[in-house]
Design brief:
Catalytic activity (chain A): L-glutamine + H2O = L-glutamate + NH4(+); N(2)-formyl-N(1)-(5-phospho-beta-D-ribosyl)glycinamide + L-glutamine + ATP + H2O = 2-formamido-N(1)-(5-O-phospho-beta-D-ribosyl)acetamidine + L-glutamate + ADP + phosphate + H(+)
Subcellular location (chain A): Cytoplasm
Structural class of chain B: alpha+beta
Largest interface: A-B, 46 and 46 residues
Number of strands of chain B: 28
Largest sheet of chain A: 9 strands, mixed
Radius of gyration of chain A: 15 Å
Helix content of chain B: 25-40%
Oligomer: heterodimer
Order of helices and strands of chain A: EHEEHEHEEEEHEEEH
Radius of gyration of chain B: 27 Å
Low-confidence stretches of chain B: 1-27, 257-261, 266-272, 774-789
Pfam families (chain A): GATase_5
Protein name (chain A): Phosphoribosylformylglycinamidine synthase subunit PurQ
Strand order of the largest sheet of chain A: 2-1-3-4-11-10-9-6-7
InterPro entries (chain A): Class_I_gatase-like, PRibForGlyAmidine_synth_PurQ
Strand order of the largest sheet of chain B: 8-10-7-11-9-12-13
Chain lengths: ~220, ~800
């Protein structure tokens, strides 16, 4: 099972995402932002970091890179895509997910271990969780405040497209405690917290994040 | 010898801009070597650039003529205190005289020392100050401090893998601290986070003496294979000199000489233009490009551009090499086309590197740079001769022997004098201070110490730092030391701690430096690591004050003697002088970093208690030692007496014991006792995961709680018999204190301190001072989600 991990200039958690894929039993494949080459991967992860230094707007420049054109085209054909943190920002900027991520309400970068509730256990990336399950994974961002108009947020919730919510404290002021959302078909998921940092007892606050990567391996097999 | 440095400093920036446009002749003509030869007697603004009369005379003697404007600029920055170590050099030689260590692959003199950590891995680490820039412009000063030390590590051929920061500010409630601290923390975080380097620990301390002189010391550690070590030297005539990274602009011109080498004058003009501006995104690309260049073997020699910019990089590369170097300054990519040649040579624009590359590899080199969107330009070549020459618009403007610029600067044996107030200070024994007499007072003092800005929860700061990126962080703040895995297969890793108790150093700089070394050594050992090597950042006042110079010399002597006793090499370091405003110097602040190695990071020992029913043991001996203690400072505002006694043999025995216990999995936590003594340590271990303890201390509970006797660690274990036997065998005194469990710290028959109350006091301090979080929860993991271990 080949899971691509894109490196943009300024990507930081690409090594972590690749490690998570490997520990879940998949084969991580490095993808380069400047190539029009998805290398026949079965799914794609857009990792965290500061692509293009967050210049212009976080994720804005990366969303217009050559490879993202192929990712957008692939997603429309059902290619599973996971955007973590900066990857989530890129997906919103690329129009694959609704809403926008803005500066944290308290204006600080914040890194802490965060409890999330799993609102949807039927997306391509969350099949190994139970609906309503609480998981503990790190959150770390300066621009992670999810926002949208009330009408858009109502529609998003009405369509049951909120995948994760913050529990026990909202780390960045996101509307309605939204931590992650999905596309209409449940194949594209974006979230601010970092499941790839919760995959080993040794280095993470839990191993709760591994489920993203085991989920996608199963989803790809059954697709 | 006490010259008027403030006068020179006040006009230093003005002096620079006068270089080419100033009085008389230079306005319309380029100051070439030819012109300098024919106008040997023309006056030059050497004093405004911070040079002394005898230093200027020596430059003329070296060159056999007056220096050109560009040469004068080069010598003035390279002979500044910051670049030349002219006041400290005679003392620092003691580190080089330490017995040879097998672990040391590259020693003092290179950008950073390199240590063998086994399995073919080499680790390079160094701590550096960016104190003065951080006071002037907190965010950019701190950010570029991180950027600079990261480039030092990268230059050695290593991938940077983590950073730490050691911060000191004036009183926590002072208005200026509220200006400086948030900017510094945001700058350390902003740069390190964007670079993708986990911040694994450090220090945050407050003292009146740092008002107007905050200390911002940043550490970076990198890892490579032995064969990947790169050195900063230019060899092989005909090899090309390539400047790559950001373009050169007007920022930071004269930064090191203006900011780092002279005392702030309350009356002086604003220094804002001399602080550099950082771009971590460019640095991230530079890191990846450099590592790819190293991997493809495209680099013969390499040097980063830090203080003194191109002047420093070219002269150091040429000086360390076998030949000379020629640079054509017109080829330097500029951000500002109006810069004069002297300004280009002195610019401290960030995110730049200089490499020596064989002609046949230049194309490949440039291709790697293009891949990473890194700008690169061939600016010169290595020559046969022994001169560093620089041309501008076809005319020669620099022609110097590079060693005289980079390595043969002035050396001073500054006069020294024991501080006149030291006898009185040491005689002011804290034994006279009133001690708590009731349980209620004891509890009040306990809460005061742990909720003081120095003792309080540091999450307000560390939550602004990414500690997870790269996925190898095993321990980070608030643990005793940061621990990072360097090999996922073998589980090998390293541990690092930075410590610098300045109260001890004020009372006795010789002992203070050793006590800081002992604390960092103990912190690393507490995680189960084997201590291996030492770095340092020596922050002091003006070397022109004989009392400060004495403090500096004593601290260096202490550190050297301490390292000799512990069998550890000093791999390098940094000196920051002139940390004073007016006549008032900071407390001597030798910040010491110790690196240790974990053969298997899975056996690391954390500081917090997770499990109820374990036995709490204290290793080491407690004496009534309160000189320079947190208790005396917090409760009585007192600094006096003698610092606690040093016993390096006991430290060594304790470290060996902790390493053995960690390796065998016999202890489930270990926490060093330092500032705030046992009270502070118990508080931190209990609050980490919300596990209390019931304890019985001996008769003198006050001393047991607040003494800062050294060579002590608290451990918890489910096998007290085995641990006690091991301690006895190792000759380490051991005392049983009690048992973990419950939701309070209970001292039998005396105190019952609910953890909730303790946590409220401990965690409220920094948010109350610097702005509380609007959202979210206390800093520990929420109840009901106990992490797996």
């Amino acid at each position: 099972m080949r899971i691509g991990v894109i490196t943009f200039p300024g990507s930081l958690d690409d090594v972590d995402a690749a490690r998570a894929v490997r520990l879940a039993g998949g084969e991580p494949v490095s993808l380069w932002h400047g190539d029009h080459d998805l290398k026949d991967v079965d799914a794609v992860v857009l990792p965290g970091g500061f692509s293009y230094g967050d210049y212009l707007r976080a994720g804005a420049i990366a969303a217009r890179s050559p490879l993202m054109q192929d990712v957008v085209a692939g997603a429309k054909q059902g290619l599973p895509v996971l955007g973590i943190c900066n990857g989530f920002q890129v997906l919103c900027e690329a129009g694959l997910l609704p809403g926008a991520l803005t500066r944290n309400s308290h204006l600080h970068f914040r890194n802490r271990d965060q409890v999330l509730s799993v609102e949807r256990a039927d997306t391509a990336w969350t099949g190994d969780y139970e609906q309503g399950q609480q998981i503990l994974i790190p959150v770390k961002n300066g621009e992670g405040r999810y926002v949208g108009s009330d009408a858009d947020l109502d529609r998003l919730e009405g369509e049951n497209r909120v995948v994760f919510r913050y529990v026990g404290g909202n780390p960045n002021g996101s509307s309605r405690d939204i931590a992650g959302v999905t596309s209409e078909n449940g194949r594209v998921v974006g979230l601010m917290p970092h499941p790839e940092h919760a995959i080993e007892d040794l280095t993470g606050p839990s191993t709760d994040g591994l489920g993203f990567f085991t989920s996608i391996l199963k989803a790809v097999v059954s697709a | 010898m006490s010259e008027d440095v403030t006068a020179g400093q006040a006009s230093a920036t003005a002096g620079l801009s006068d270089l080419d446009t100033g009085p008389g002749r230079l306005a319309d003509r380029l100051d070439t070597v030819e012109l300098a030869t024919s106008t040997a007697d023309d006056e030059q603004p050497w004093a405004e650039l911070g040079l002394k009369a005898d230093e200027y005379a020596r430059i003329k003697e070296i060159l056999g003529r007056r220096p050109t404007t560009a040469e004068l600029a080069m010598y003035s920055v390279m002979w500044s205190e910051h670049c030349s170590y002219k006041s400290s050099k005679v003392h620092l030689r003691q580190f080089g005289d330490l017995p040879k260590s097998d672990a040391l692959l590259v020693g003092i003199g290179e950008n950073a020392g390199v240590v063998d950590v086994g399995e073919g891995y080499a680790v390079t680490f160094k701590v550096e100050s960016h104190n003065h820039p951080s006071y002037v412009e907190p965010y950019q000063g701190a950010a570029t401090g991180v950027g600079g030390i990261v480039r030092d590590i990268l230059t050695m051929g290593a991938r940077p893998i983590a950073v730490m920061d050691s911060l000191r500010f004036g009183r926590a409630d002072a208005p200026d601290t509220a200006r400086v601290l948030p900017g510094v923390v945001a700058g350390v975080g902003g740069y390190g986070n964007c670079l993708g380097l986990p911040n694994i620990g450090g220090e945050l301390l407050f003292d009146e003496c740092y008002a107007g002189n905050p200390l911002v010391n940043a550490l970076c550690v990198g890892v490579m294979k032995h064969e990947d070590v790169h050195l900063a030297k230019a060899e092989g005539a005909g090899n090309k000199v390539i400047l790559f990274g950001a373009r050169t602009g007007g920022d930071g011109i004269g930064g090191v000489s203006v900011l780092a080498s002279e005392t702030f004058d309350a009356e002086g003009p604003a220094k804002r233009p001399a602080v550099q501006v950082g771009d971590p995104f460019t640095e991230k690309l530079l890191i990846e490009a450099c590592l790819e260049l190293f991997a493809q073997d495209l680099v013969t020699g390499i040097q980063d551009l830090g203080g003194a910019g191109l002047s420093c990089a070219t002269s150091e590369l040429a000086s360390a090499g076998t030949g000379g170097m020629h640079v054509d300054l017109d080829t330097v990519p500029l951000r500002d086309s109006t810069l004069t040649p002297a300004e280009i040579l002195m610019s401290e624009s960030q995110e730049r590197m200089c490499a020596i590359v064989e002609p046949g590899k230049v194309e490949q080199f440039l291709a790697v740079c293009r891949k990473w969107d890194v700008r690169a330009a061939v600016i010169g070549e290595v020559t046969d001769g022994d001169r560093l020459t620089v041309d501008w618009h076809g005319e020669r403007i620099v022609d110097v022997p590079p060693r005289t610029v980079a390595h043969e600067g002035p050396v001073y044996e500054r006069p020294m004098a024991r501080p006149a107030d030291l006898d009185a200070l040491q005689a002011d024994d804290p034994a006279r201070l009133p001690r708590p007499t009731t349980a209620a007072e004891l509890q009040a003092h306990w809460l005061a110490v742990v909720s003081s800005p120095d003792g309080a929860d540091k999450s307000w700061v560390t939550e602004q730092y990414d500690r997870y990126v790269r996925g190898n962080t095993v321990l980070a703040q608030p643990e005793d030391a940061g621990v990072v895995r360097i090999d996922e297969q073998s589980h090998r890793g390293i541990a690092l701690s930075l410590d610098g108790n300045a109260r001890f150093a004020r009372l006795d700089p010789y002992a203070g430096a050793q006590l800081n070394l002992a604390e960092a050594y103990r912190n690393v050992a507490a995680t189960g690591a084997k201590p291996l090597a030492v770095t340092n950042c020596l922050n002091f006042g003006s070397p022109e004050n004989p009392e400060v110079m004495w403090q500096f010399a004593e601290a260096v002597r202490g550190l050297a003697d301490g390292c000799r006793a512990l069998g550890l090499p000093v791999t390098g370091g940094n000196v920051s002088l002139y940390n004073q405003t007016g006549d008032v110097a900071i407390n001597p602040t030798p910040v010491i970093g110790v690196l240790g190695v974990h053969e298997d990071v899975r056996t690391r020992v954390p500081a917090g208690w997770r499990t109820a029913g374990e036995t709490v043991l204290l290793f080491g001996e407690t004496r009534a030692e309160f000189g320079g203690s947190a208790w005396a400072s917090v409760v009585h505002g007192h600094l006096g007496g003698r610092p606690p006694a040093l016993d390096l043999a006991a430290e060594r025995a304790l470290a060996d014991l902790l390493g053995a216990l960690g390796g065998e999995g016999l202890v489930s936590s270990a926490h060093d006792l330092a500032d705030g003594g046992l009270a502070q340590a118990l508080t931190e271990s209990a609050l980490r995961y919300g596990t209390g303890a019931r304890l019985a201390l001996d008769d003198d509970v006050f001393t047991a709680l607040f003494s800062e006797s050294t060579a002590r660690v608290v451990v918890t274990t489910s096998d007290p018999g085995g641990v006690k036997r091991a301690a006895e065998w190792a000759g380490v005194p051991v005392t049983e204190l009690g048992t973990t469990g419950g939701d309070a710290l209970v001292l039998d028959g005396l105190l019952d301190l609910p953890l909730a109350e303790l946590r409220a006091a401990w965690s409220a301090t920094l948010p109350a001072l610097f702005g509380g979080p609007e959202h979210g929860t206390p800093s520990t993991v929420p109840a009901g989600t106990v992490p797996t271990s």
